[in-house]
Specification:
The chain is an alpha+beta fold and 429 residues long. It contains 18 helices and 9 strands. Helix 4 packs across helix 14, helix 4 (141-169) crosses helix 17 and helix 5 runs antiparallel to helix 6 (188-201).
């Protein structure tokens, strides 16, 4: 038994439909359970109850045992003088507030709806990665959908926390913020931090000054990445190094320590190829984020990422090692990944900052136009016969798994609430 479960029981009034009495044997009617307070102070605010013939409005405090009131020193805290009812699992002691007034108590032990506790314990003892897995599909479709909608917005809000940091780093420059976020996500999972470091060491304005020369943009990016050095053998690499040394001195640049990872990456995902694609992108477009804001569909945005590599890289994956000549376009999955993790979150943040609901709606709508992601976490839900229909669903499921299923916060999840609130005796383990 936990206080969180008791909060849940009170919030959803999971009590037998009988007449209630306080431990002092006064009749009790629960008119309004109130709002769950997650800050300091009593657990529920704006509560309304009726004891005998008198109606009361105030707060409710919840404990496992009545005596916990004194354990938490509430009797000395005036913030608890407005408590009109003490709700406990087990009553073991009368309690008083700082004014020495007796606080009415409701004991839950014998009035809980049958099997609420056992269902809760089954969830927490479940060996499944998704604790409610065996019952997931029995939850109403409308409940699943509302849960996923909430999860998507939670995930977007979480991502905007990081984007806000970048926005402040750029002194509120939207194009520069897009540039930093794009670099981070171009590194994908393995090299994301290193790519962000590279972007932070070279202002976008410097790159755009040389946008008419892809070679110079490549020299700047490769140089700042730490991949250019005196050991390079072929003409192309030596030419980039020479170009970089001049630009490095001109702009007083300091490269990062080379920490880019190649191991266990497919060649087309090597950081060298991603850097060249970024150079191609920068050379091709200016005011990119403005173009994204003006775009009407994902299809329009995808056209912006129709980028390839310079001639040298068509037959190379790394410096000095020639390979079979091949076009190295940014694949559709990579483009969609960038839209999911760069474009939509930044658009959402932009809409919030500008208080423009149409931009926020556009960011959310674009998720519906993208295919759902495929990874081991999404597969867990697919095994429960829940197949995400679009990227909004897959993003929501990632949020649901990481923040609710994995830490078993079922009481804070709409789906968990639905399962625990129903009279369902099936075992979850």
């Amino acid at each position: 038994m936990t206080e969180n479960l008791l909060h849940f029981i009170w919030q959803y009034k999971l009590l037998k439909p009988i007449s209630y009495y306080t431990t002092q044997n006064n009749s009790l009617e629960i008119i309004k359970c109130g709002a769950h307070n997650k800050d300091a102070g009593p657990d529920f605010t704006n509560v309304r109850i009726k004891i005998d013939d008198t109606e009361w409005a105030g707060t409710v405090e919840i404990h496992k045992k009545s005596s916990d009131w004194y354990l938490h020193r509430h009797e000395t805290n005036k913030a608890y003088d407005n408590v009109i009812l003490h709700v406990v699992y087990e009553h073991d002691k009368d309690i008083y507030n700082s004014k020495q007034q007796l606080i009415p108590c409701l004991e839950l032990k014998h009035i809980l709806i049958d099997d609420v506790i056992s269902k809760y314990e089954n969830l927490y003892q479940s060996k499944q990665q998704i604790p409610c897995g065996s019952l997931f599909n029995e939850v109403a479709a409308i409940t699943q959908e509302s849960c996923l909608e909430r999860m998507l917005f939670e995930r977007l809000e979480a991502k905007t926390d990081f984007i806000k940091e970048l926005y402040h780093f750029t002194k509120s420059n939207w194009e520069e913020t897009f540039y930093l976020l794009l670099f981070k996500n171009f590194g994908f999972h393995t090299n994301s931090d290193a790519f962000l470091q590279i972007a932070k060491t070279i202002p976008l304005t410097v790159l755009l000054k040389h946008a008419n020369s892809t070679t110079q943009v490549e020299a700047l990016l490769f140089g700042q990445s730490g991949l250019l050095n005196a050991t390079l053998k072929d003409k192309y690499g030596k030419g980039l190094l020479k170009e970089y040394e001049y630009l490095k001195h001109k702009y007083s640049l300091t490269p990062i320590a080379h920490n880019l990872k190649f191991l266990r990456l497919r060649p087309q995902n090597f950081p060298t190829i991603r850097i060249v694609q970024l150079a191609n992108f920068i050379s091709k477009y200016q005011h990119t984020f403005s173009k994204i804001i003006e775009s009407n569909s994902v299809k329009d945005v995808k056209k912006l990422f129709a980028i390839s590599v310079s001639d040298y890289w068509k037959c190379h994956y790394v410096f000095d090692e020639e390979s079979i000549s091949k076009e190295k376009h940014l694949g559709n999955l990579s483009v969609e990944n960038i839209i999911i993790n760069t474009v939509c979150p930044l658009l959402f943040f932009y809409g919030k900052e500008k208080q423009d609901e149409s931009i926020i709606e556009k960011a959310v709508k674009w998720y519906d136009e993208l295919k759902p992601e495929r990874n081991k976490f999404i597969k867990l839900f697919e095994e429960l016969k829940f197949k995400p229909k679009h990227a909004g669903h897959s993003q929501a499921l990632l949020q649901l798994y990481a923040n609710y299923c994995s830490p078993k916060k079922c009481l804070a999840c709409n789906i968990g609430v639905s399962i625990l609130s129903k009279n369902n005796r099936r075992n979850l383990s």
